[in-house]
Amino acid sequence: MTPRRLTPLLLVLALAGCTTQQKNANLKGDQKAVADVVDKLETASTGRKAQDICSDILTRALAQSFKASGGDCVREIDRAIRDADDSKLTVKAVAISGTTAQARVQGRIGPR
Question: Which burial class, exposed, middle or buried, applies to 83 when counting CB atoms under 10 A from its CB (0-12, 13-18, 19+)?
Fold first, then answer.
């Protein structure tokens, strides 16, 4: 996977949270909501649903930033998730300050 293809996925990982409800069980409230976003990301990635990632998971500003750099969100995300046939995301920590959330996520992406 080239750095350009990996960039959208890394941006998403930097913004999000965890994998399954069992792993999110120790999180409550807003922290759990952040972790649930990463769960959605993992599910959409596994299902090869780039359109869902761009329209439902990424912020509008992040999705539109692909256009500003001459790309297209759906095309770039599709390339990123197509290059991996296995992905697992695990939230290590979630910190919330006002309207900003920061999650430390450990990811494993397997090659095709």
Answer: middle
